[in-house]
Specification:
The complex is a heterodimer of chains A (134) and B (138). With 134 residues, chain A is mainly alpha-helical. Chain A has one domain (21-133): 3 helical TM bundles of succinate and fumarate reductases (Up-down Bundle), CATH 1.20.1300. Helix content of chain A is 75%, strand content 0%. Chain A is built from six helices and no strands. Chain A has helices at residues 14-18, 23-51, 57-62, 65-68, 70-98, 106-133. In chain A, helix 2 (23-51) crosses helix 5 (70-98) and helix 5 (70-98) runs antiparallel to helix 6. The longest helix of chain A is centred in the N-terminal third of the chain and has 29 residues, at 23-51. By secondary structure, chain B is mainly alpha-helical. Chain B has a single domain (23-135), classed as 3 helical TM bundles of succinate and fumarate reductases. Chain B is built from five helices and no strands. Chain B has helices at residues 8-12, 21-51, 58-64, 68-96, 100-127. Chain B is elongated and about 60 Å long. The termini of chain B are far apart. In chain B, 12% of the residues are buried. The interface between A and B is large, with 36 and 37 residues.
């Protein structure tokens, strides 16, 4: 490691940013933020649509296309991706924070996380989308 | 001495933060994260895989909320998810908004949204009464 020097540059291309030496730790950090914001956005929509239940079945059931349309199913797969990644990555961060020695193995833990994420996500996405083909 | 016209915010710039707010924020993110690993993941699994979105309608919500324990579950999910998410947003805003004025404005809007949505959610969870024709659900 060279001596610390903060270089603050605006407008760095995103691909150059992704090639920064942070690698696994930084990629998951970016994804954690992006998925967190996405889930928060969905949560606000979801609180709003459940609030409408108070006005009786009519309005609420008219809005259920927001969950049933084919394009909504695609977004739900994104939601699954976000929740599953944020959950697994958050669990990894918690484990590392409370057992700091594990930070040395961060890279390996990220790949372990990916090994759990990929099959569970593919299985879940299949179950989310299956009703479209019935 | 600064004049009253210079805001408390301006006088704080460059000083170390007082109190342990950020420590508690850090701890809260971990504790609520563990809680949400159960509550949120199970909720997603139950609604989208066990029930399926095609089978969810008004009567499913009405039936679910016949049981006060489900209302409590939904309230804790709302409380932890929204607080965790809004605190995350606060941290992100701290990182990317560099002008104090914009930062205060954005955090104020976020805080108002937090109070509004928490209120809307808690209101419907605890005051919902099914209409009479559905009240006889099993």
């Amino acid at each position: 490691m060279t001596a610390g020097r903060i270089v603050y540059t605006r407008g760095r291309p995103i691909l150059a940013g992704l090639r920064y030496r942070g690698r696994e730790g930084m990629w998951t950090w970016i994804l954690h933020r992006a998925t967190g914001l996405g889930i928060l956005g969905f949560l606000l929509l979801h609180i709003f649509d459940i609030f409408l239940v108070g006005f009786g079945p009519g309005l609420f059931e008219e809005l259920l296309f927001l969950y049933r349309a084919w394009w909504a199913r695609m977004l739900e797969v994104f939601l699954l991706f976000g929740v599953l990644f944020h959950a697994l990555n958050g669990a990894r961060i918690i484990v590392q924070d409370f057992w700091p020695k594990l930070w040395r193995w961060e890279r390996q833990l990220v790949w372990l996380e990916a090994a759990v994420f990929v099959p569970v996500f593919l299985w879940g996405a299949f179950l989310f989308l299956r009703p479209l083909f019935d | 001495m600064t004049t009253p016209a210079e805001s408390a915010f301006a006088r704080r710039i460059g000083r170390p933060p007082r109190g342990n707010f950020e420590l508690y924020s850090w701890l809260f993110m971990r504790l609520s994260g563990v809680v949400l690993l159960g509550l949120a993941v199970f909720h997603l699994f139950w609604m989208h895989i066990v029930l399926g979105v095609d089978n969810i309608d008004f009567s499913v919500v009405a039936e679910r909320w016949q049981n006060p324990l489900w209302r409590l579950y939904d309230f804790f999910l709302l409380l932890f998810a929204l607080t965790h998410g809004m605190n995350g947003l606060r941290i992100i805003l701290d990182d990317y908004l560099r002008r104090p004025g914009w930062l205060v404005a954005a955090k104020s809007v976020a805080f108002l949204c937090y109070v509004l949505f928490l209120g809307m959610g808690a209101y419907i969870i605890f005051t919902f009464t099914p209409p009479p024709e559905l009240a006889a659900l099993p």
